Amino acid sequence: MTSNSPLLSWILSNETPFQSPNRLTSLYSDFTASRASNPDGYAANVAAWRTALQHAYRAGVAAQSGDTSNNTFVIRTGPTLAAALEKHDIGSPGALGAVQEDSLAQKHWYRREDFLQRKQSVYWKPWMGVAIPSAEDVFYSLMIRVGLAEDKRLTREGEFVILRNVEDASDKVLSRIAKQGSSPTQLVHSLETFIATFKDILADDGEADRELSMPEISILLAHLYRDKRAIDMYYSEKTRTTTVKFAKTPGTPDPIEESDDTIAHLRKLLLDLEQQTSTLQKRIEECDKTAREALRSGSGDGQRKKAMAALRTKKLANETLAKREASQAQIERVLTGIEEAAGQKDMVKAMEMSASVLEGLNKEVGGVDKVQEIMDRVADGIADVEDVNKALSEPGVNNVDENEVDEELESMMKDMEPREQAGKDGRTDLPSVPSTEPSSKEETDKNIEETRRKVGNMAI
């Protein structure tokens, strides 16, 4: 029994739609005709195939199945892909052409040549200036959609960029740049340092052996430059250096200046020196190992000469390494100085802007004289308020005759003096008790009333 390819095995193990026997039969059938009769089912099958291929190429299993072009960003259609997806008990997928057509129409895939050469962003929406197809083109396209004709162009071999995989990689690049900082020496790269820095960007997912190929680097740069507007690029004839400058804010890249070209050139030289020092260190280790092995092999003249030759080479390599390391340290000091100068430039610029803001605010205020005038007016206003409060707190106009009040007070005091004296002696003048029995009820009532009157007067 023939085993499945690594590509198909990965899809069957990781993609849910391909793990159901009934669904798998539908996915491998020629469901092109269902575009008209069952559009939802057709769309679901196309999406399942497109997503599965995108994930598989993202995982890097395409190269294991014979597709050695670009195993992350670019899918190669044709007999090779059909053979890699062939299942021993079902056969090859019957609607790969429909998957390819729909992916192109929905802008999930782009022909590789078109993607690299196009001027407009892949996110641009053509509201105006759209070419109107001929009646023949419309009719033929309709026949293809209803399954009554086959687009021969879609079954031939071709290379197509998987946009989603490119977007994922570019997002990782921008995330790494954001973490590094926004100094010029961090935002500016030569093409060589860009490749060295980001070729392992897919290893962020834990795949340490994954590196982008040069064709993939080209696609990534095109996407960052044209679609993301995250970088600017420039080739200098003077330094023969391709400068890649990241925008501080994606969408608004700053133009490349001569200082940026210098930084890129210095970073390129530094990278070259790092590679040279690494090579020299390996050579020194190899020479040392060769000399020791020669001495261990015997003490004859031949082994001795071999050891001496290895040591001479080691000594020369050490001298060259010292020179390269000195040059490397010098370039690093220059880059550090550039970074510090750039920081000072930003600080001075910020202070200059602050000074302009302060000058504008002071101008709006009107200067010290105007402020003093305003403070005087405020003080006058406060004084007026205090005067009003003082006037409101004073007693109102008195229309009462004070002499009459004094006379009434004197009279009241004279009336109260005998009563106060009686109170002090502990005596109270009560009416005398009658010595004879009243002659009649009327007389009795009269006496009682007289007594009450006297008692009342005493209380007053």
TrEMBL record:
InterPro entries xref list: Snf7_fam (IPR005024)
One GO CC term on file: ESCRT III complex
Record has Cell membrane as a keyword: no
Pfam families: Snf7 (PF03357)
Gene3D superfamilies: 6.10.140.1230
Protein keywords: Coiled coil
Top-rank taxon: Eukaryota
PANTHER family, per the entry: CHARGED MULTIVESICULAR BODY PROTEIN, SORTING PROTEIN SNF7 FAMILY PROTEIN, PUTATIVE (AFU_ORTHOLOGUE AFUA_2G16692)-RELATED
Protein name as catalogued: Uncharacterized protein
Organism: Carpinus fangiana
Source taxonomy: Eukaryota, Viridiplantae, Streptophyta, Embryophyta, Tracheophyta
